[in-house]
Structure formats: C-alpha cells, structure tokens
Specification:
The complex is a heterodimer of chains A (166) and B (404). With 166 residues, chain A is α+β, with helices and mostly antiparallel strands. In chain A, 25% of the residues lie in helices and 28% in strands. Chain A has helices at residues 2-30, 35-39, 154-161; strands at 43-46, 55-60, 63-69, 81-83, 86-92, 103-105, 110-112, 119-120, 126-128, 140-143, 146-149. Chain B is an all-alpha fold and 404 residues long. Chain B is globular. Chain B has two domains: 40-297, Cytochrome Bc1 Complex, Chain C (Up-down Bundle); 311-404, no CATH class. Chain B has 16 helices and two strands. Chain B has helices spanning 10-18, 20-29, 43-62, 72-83, 87-115, 123-145, 150-161, 171-178, 185-215, 229-237, 249-274, 304-310, 315-327, 332-335, 349-369, 374-399, and strands at 32-34, 246-248. The chains are: A alpha+beta (166), B mainly alpha (404). Chains A and B meet through loops of A and helix 7, helix 8 and helix 13 of B.
Chain lengths: 166, 404
C-alpha cells in the first residue's frame, strides 16, 4: 500500500517540479524588455553645426549621449570620432560608477559627476574618484557629416576590437 | 459526524467550532510577559500599529494612483494632493509613517542588541526580524519609485545599476530588472506591483513568523534573567500577582503598550500635520527626467548609513562592502560568542562595542547626506572602516568575555 502512496507522491512531485520550472521560465520571460522597447533604437545626429567645447546631449535608447567637438588644444584620443578634419568625443553620458549623468565643465574642460565625485577628461577617461572605467562609446556609424547611433560602423568595430570600449 | 452540544452563548458556540478560548489563552491571557522590562519593549507593538496605518493609508492612495510614466506624477501631485478629499492626509500619513517605521525599527534593533535578545533560543526572533528589515527596505524603495519624480527616477537608476555587480558588468540582468534600457514604464509598473502586493504579502507573513518565534522563548527582560515561566505563571494564576515575575500579554501588558502607543501617536500626528515636509524631498517634486541628474543624489535618511559604506571605496570593493553591510546584522547571533544574556552595560568590552557601533552608524548617516567632497570623504571612509573593524572584533571580544 505504502509503495502506491509513495508512487503517487513522487509522480505529483515530479510533475509539479516540471511545471514549476516551466512557470519560472515564463516569469523570467515576462520581465524581459518588450520587443517594442528593444526595437526603438536608432538616433541620427548631424555633426556639421557643432561648436567646439560645447557639449551636445542627445537621447538614444533613453540614455543621454555626449557629443563634444574637440578644440585643437584637447588631447587627441583613439576613441575620438573623426569626421573630416574635426575630432569629436562621443560617449554614453552615464557615469561608469553608478549611472548618474556627469556635468560638463567647459572652463575646466572635464566632466564631473555630482553623485560620488567622479571626473572624466574630454576623451571620457576617468581622472578622479570611483569610476572604474572610461565613459562608454555607443555603437555608431559615420554617414557623411552625420552620425548614426545604434548601428555599429567600421570605426566603432575597430574601437571595440581594440578593447577601447565595452 | 462529530458530536456538538447545544451552545448557551455565542462564545461557547464559537469555542466549540474554532477553539477560540484555547487560542485566546495561548496568544493573550496566558502568554506571559516578564514584569522587568521598560518602554523599549513596546516598540514591537508600535511597529505593528505603524504598519497597520501604512496599510490603511496605502489602500486609499491606491484608489487614485496611476502606475504609468505619463500619469504617475500628476496622479500623486495633482489628483491625490489637490482633488481627492483628504488625499493629502493619506499621502502625508503614508510618507511620515514610512519614515518613522524605520526610526522605530532601528530603536527596536538596537534594544535587542543592547539586551542580548538574540541569544540562547531567541536566534530565530532576530533572524525573522532582520528579514523583516530587508523586506521593509525593499518596500520603502519600491514605494519611493511611485511618485515618479527626479529622486524616484535617479534612485531607481542607481539602485538597479548595483545589480550589474561592478566589473562583472551584468547589464543584461539590470535591463531584465528594469524591462528597459533605463527605468521606464515597465519598471514603474512592476515596482508598483511589488510595492502594493508581493512585498506587503511577504511582510505580513514575516510578521506572523516573527510573533511565532517569540512565543516559545518569550521576550527577554532588563537583566537577561532566565526564569521558570510555568512557575511564575502559576503564582500569577493563584492570585499572587505581586510575587509573580510575569503578567499576561493581554489585557495587562497590552495596556502598557497602549500607553506608549498613545505617546507615539501624539508625535506621529504632530509630524503628519505640522512637519510632513521632512518625509517629502523637494527634488522629488520635479517630474522624472532621464537627461538631467539632480546635482546631489541621496537616499532617504534610513538608508544613508549603508549608502555611505558604498561611497568612499572604489567601485568593486564598494559593492562588496555594501553587500556585506546589508546582511552582516543577520549574523549577529552567531558572531556574538559570549554565553551571557545581559544588558551591554554589564558585558565589559561589548558595552564599548555597542556604543561605538551606534555612534558609527550615526556618523555614517550624517556623512551619507553631506556632499562627497574634502573632509567628509575622509570621515566617511574612516567610519566605514570602523564599521567593518567592529564586526571583525565582535567574535574576539565576546569570546574572551567572562561568564557572569
């Protein structure tokens, strides 16, 4: 008798476990970003009107994108986006510490994050405070004098392969 | 079918079917509370009452709140605050209670630490209590998201970013938690669900467990004295009320609780009506803007100490320190190696440990609120290091403690 009872218990337990795993998967999927959220995602910016040492902030996938036209006295960097003879610093404007937006101080030529005091230079490299890595470069493609954010062009792929951004 | 006699009263009728008299004995009239306690032992009931108030005010807020990024801010700041009759009252009660509940939780916790009420059979009381602290923290955070102001948005951004676990760069996990690249509609609605359903359910379950863990070991007393509850109860029931060391929970002890509750609610409603602004950050009266970080982001006061433990370190060690700080209090019953259940004042070095810990948490709290610059950074770093030094020292100093 008891073996039949055990069997019923094990059968129920087995199916319940199977159903539980399936339910967990469904729950996980329910929390995934929606396809509409993922699909929204290319921003085109015309760089020809940019002024040197004036920060432009664009929005891409809900995140701020820093675009800074460099002045000749700013150090060139491998992560610069070169359009014609102009060099631009382009990065996701979120501090790599915990995601606050650093403010650009045009006089000091650096980015300063108010949350925890992190600082970045005009190439996005961390120069002070807790940020562990440089500001990230978003996937971009150069199209004449325009830049398309969200699409990986050869310049971006080269940067990524060289480990200059994540 | 079971046999039932004809009942002569409603009470007898209920007792036959639900054993209400047994239940009343176990939970009230024969649940013995030591006499040798003080007003700090009323904090549990203060917390239960505050939770009740949060529940009631929350129910009324829920009827007009809209969990949608385009409507949330206005549904709180316009509809509830200006249109709904007494909507402002529910909001101010909810905000003030959410703040005060943490003040009382901290008093309740440090009372337990001071009197050693987490040892010798009382470990589960401590553990279930700390789980309540964790769920209350999650409840407070998820609730803070709902008005969808600047602080809501940026606190949501910073806290969810913690789950990228520093150099592990688990951005997929962060996006999964948010349901978006940045906190958005999916994020607001799921945190709304957590705040009004899942977490309150967990809290109610944990409160029942917390009360349950208290029933067998009974509450501690001011001297940590171990005595025979059955014997003391026998004296009380024989009418030797003066000689007995105990009183019944209800109605005798509860009447003392009710007095403390009365004093507490005078303070509570004074704050609700005259000083509610301390629980309403002005920055959160600007609607959420993903392209503008407020100049200085800080959490509500009750999270400042752990925030300050995160802040002065580089990213990865900071996250590890923060993670440890969140759970280290759970380990207290196992890190305290002393056999003594006694107030800290009689426990030598532990007394020093207790007061430095309390002071250190106050310093961390103050530093967490100040901007991260100059001398504040240094003081914050030292206080964070002291916090960890204290936990490392605890097993050593308690191990060498003399048995009282």
């Amino acid at each position: 008798m008891s073996s039949r009872r055990d069997f019923m218990g094990k059968a129920l337990g087995g199916f319940a476990a199977l159903g539980g795993i399936a339910a967990l998967y469904a729950m996980k999927r329910s929390w995934d970003p929606l396809p509409s959220v993922k699909a929204a995602g290319f921003t085109t910016v015309d760089l020809s009107a940019a002024e040197p040492n004036v920060l432009n902030v664009e929005k891409w996938r809900g995140k701020p994108i820093f675009i800074l036209k460099k002045t000749p006295d700013m150090k060139p960097d491998d992560r610069d986006v070169v359009v014609g003879s102009d060099r631009f610093h382009v990065s996701i404007g979120l501090c790599t510490h915990l995601g606050c937006i650093p403010a650009y101080q045009a006089d000091n030529k650096k980015f300063k994050c108010a949350c925890h005091g992190g600082e970045f230079d005009t190439s996005g490299h961390q120069i002070f405070g807790p940020p562990p890595s440089p500001l990230e470069v978003p996937p971009f493609k150069i199209d004449g004098t325009k830049i398309v954010l969200g699409e990986a062009g050869p310049e971006y792929t080269k940067m990524k392969d060289a480990g200059l951004t994540v | 079918m079971a046999h039932f006699e004809k009942a002569n009263s409603i009470n007898e009728w209920m007792d036959q079917r639900l054993a209400v008299n047994t239940l009343k004995k176990v939970m009230q009239t024969e649940y013995w509370i030591p006499k040798n306690i003080n007003f700090l032992w009323a904090m549990g009931m203060v917390l239960a009452a505050t939770f009740g108030i949060l529940l009631v005010s929350g129910i009324f807020l829920l009827m007009y709140y809209k969990p949608d990024v385009n409507m949330a801010f206005d549904s709180v700041n316009y509809t509830i605050m200006t249109e709904v009759g007494y909507g402002w009252l529910w909001r101010h009660i909810h905000g003030v209670a959410a703040s005060l509940v943490f003040l009382v939780i901290y008093i309740h916790m440090f009372t337990g630490i001071y009197y050693g009420s987490y040892k010798k059979g009382r470990e589960l009381i401590w553990l279930s209590g700390m789980l309540l602290f964790v769920t209350f923290s999650a409840e407070a955070f998820s609730g803070y998201m709902l008005p969808w102001g600047q602080m809501s948005y940026w606190a949501g951004m910073v806290i969810t970013n913690l789950f990228s676990a520093g150099s592990l760069e688990l951005y997929g996990l962060v996006e999964w938690i948010r349901g978006d690249y940045v906190p958005g509609d999916a994020f607001l609605t799921r945190f709304f669900m957590l705040h009004v359903l899942l977490l309150p359910l967990a809290i109610i379950g944990l409160i029942v467990l917390h009360f349950g863990t208290l029933r067998i070991p009974h509450v501690n007393n001011q001297d940590g004295e171990e005595f025979d509850f059955a014997e003391a109860a026998k004296l009380y029931k024989e009418g030797k009320v003066k000689e007995s060391k105990v009183i019944p929970f209800s109605p005798v002890f509860l009447s003392k609780d009710v007095f403390v509750l009365g004093v507490y609610f005078i303070l509570f409603f004074y704050l609700v009506f005259f000083h509610f602004e301390f629980a309403m950050d002005p920055v959160n009266f600007d609607p959420a803007d993903g392209l503008k970080t407020p100049p200085h982001i800080y959490p509500e006061w009750y999270f400042l100490w752990s925030y300050e433990i995160l802040r002065p370190f580089p990213k990865d060690p900071g996250l590890v320190a923060f993670g440890i700080a969140q759970v280290i209090f759970l380990m207290l019953p196992f890190l305290d190696r002393s056999p003594n259940v006694a107030p800290a004042s009689r426990r030598g070095l532990f007394n020093v440990w207790f007061w430095i810990m309390l002071l250190d948490m106050l310093v961390l709290t103050v530093m967490g609120k100040l901007p991260p610059q100059g001398i504040w950074n240094t003081i914050g770093l030292v206080a964070a290091l002291v916090f960890f030094a204290l936990w490392i020292a605890l097993p050593i100093i308690t191990k060498s403690e003399k048995k009282l």
